[in-house]
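tool=predict chain=A
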Amino acid sequence: MKILIAGAHGATAQLVAKRLIADTTDELVLFLRDAKRLGDWAKADRVTVVEGDVKQTETLVKALTDVDVVYSNLGGTDLADLTSELLAAMKQAGVHRLIFYSALGALNEVPGKFGAWNEQAIAAFLPGFRKANDLILKTPEIVTTQLRPAWLTNNDEVAYETTSATEPFKGTEVSRKSVADFVIRLLKDPSLYQNDSIGLDKPGTDGDQPSWI
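tool=predict ok
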């Protein structure tokens, strides 16, 4: 396949890209604002690095040529605007499969004291995630899987469980390697979890806050 990673400098995005280079024959397009931020690993033969802003529609549409799947690792308080631009560019380029990095709380699904704490901790970002979810639901021609990971750790482990869009969120934390592993599963089989939103956490991490707080 040919896969475009938007926001390719993100920590999880880099884990995903490196695994795809090591374990597959897929062709990668790494789309980011500052290409100098990537290391030598991005100079692999099957990798094309495109420097640009998602809001630069012409640049993004060109980068999407012959792409089969997009993995969005975009973020920030302007996520809704970025998502709108990404969806429009995908429609223009005729790309119909999206894996979208969202966040816990995007569906108001985190219960109890942890849910209340999370609302305050990422209050500046949750409106963007929630608006992005609305935009995705209003764009059925783009088949999307949203990921809602718990608070992220850099632990060297792959250990996670999933919850559906209609289930209360479990756990408080999960490793970036775990999230990357789930993304790789979706990229290897894009038929999984279509038009769904999946929560990711490490089993046994339930609590009022992540363990390091």
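Strands lie at 2-6, 27-32, 47-51, 69-72, 97-101, 143-149, 151-153, 161-163, 173-175, 196-201. Residues 12 and 68 are 20 Å apart (CA to CA).
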